[in-house]
Amino acid sequence: MLVIDGSFGEGGGQILRSAVALSAITGTDIRVVNIRAKRPEPGLKRQHLTGILAAARMCDAVVEGASVGSTEIVFRPGSIRGGRYEFDVGTAGSATLVLQTLLPIMAFADSPVEVEIRGGTDVPWSPPVDYLRYVIGPHLAELGYEFRVELVKRGHYPKGGGIVRVYVDRPPRSFRPSNKVGAGRLLRIGGVSHCVRLPRHVAERQAEAAARELAGRGIGVRVDLKTEWYEPDRDPHLGPGSGIVLWATTERSILGADSLGERGKPAEVVGREAVSKLLEDLSTGMAYDRHMADIAIPYLALAEGPSVVGVSRLTLHAYTNVWLVKNMLEVEVECDGDVGSPAVIRVRPRAG
User: Fold this and answer.
1) Where are the alpha helices (DSSP H) in 121-238?
2) Which listed residue (48, 156, 291, 317) is catalytic?
């Protein structure tokens, strides 16, 4: 049994999510210790527990230590099965972080898979659902992994109540490698600004502030920002909440950035904040934004051939995933760059 120290690197939920996914895919029994040791409240939260139990159900795994607050689990996977699954985080815990565990596993199912997750779709410290739809999805499609995302209802902190469904009609059971260091010339910028259980002007002001900021920075490309809002008597969300996700399409890539609204934070600040993040990543000339790097590493490590990608910023999450795949898979990974700086990541099978 492979023992994984959950306190390594970022010491939070990332190492747990990736370890469980790789365990299910490779059939490796694992013990994860010191779970979330570097967080103020160590141990499993509801969203981590949901991800583990969901993965276990998909691959008929035997799990020990799966309870809220646990700092150690054992995960013994079986075979990955397709079918329809429903999971409820039970709080505003992130549905997209649960999907970070499940999406790699779903790619290796023996038949089509449909997953419905209830929880937070737009919450702090996690990828918003629109980032999943408009950035993660296209990147993974280039690796040969296509899936559909249906946003049924948004969920914000603290009430949650969101519903997202993901469909994998043809599990690829393998991934293509990637050779994508530079982003190339900027072609256009898109985005979605939303609000629920709030006045319509909140979503509009977020989008208008983003558009003004882009214009003021001299971005000479088409900017297409959509707004999403609901009439009060037809708004199905628990809310309230708001946010904006932007994505930049370049010659060779898509880079994304986001910002969430919160009490006391003007809508204009939300829009400008997302623009600042996006332009900071674009300014490096690298193909992956700061968040796509850690998401992509497990897929590249499982790909059928060597990959080389450029990332705008090597985060501690990405650094942690590099360490994990080197310890769980037969791959070599090199990072030309330091944590916090742009980097080039090379991933290759040890046999290749």
Assistant:
1) 129-131, 137-142, 200-216
2) 317
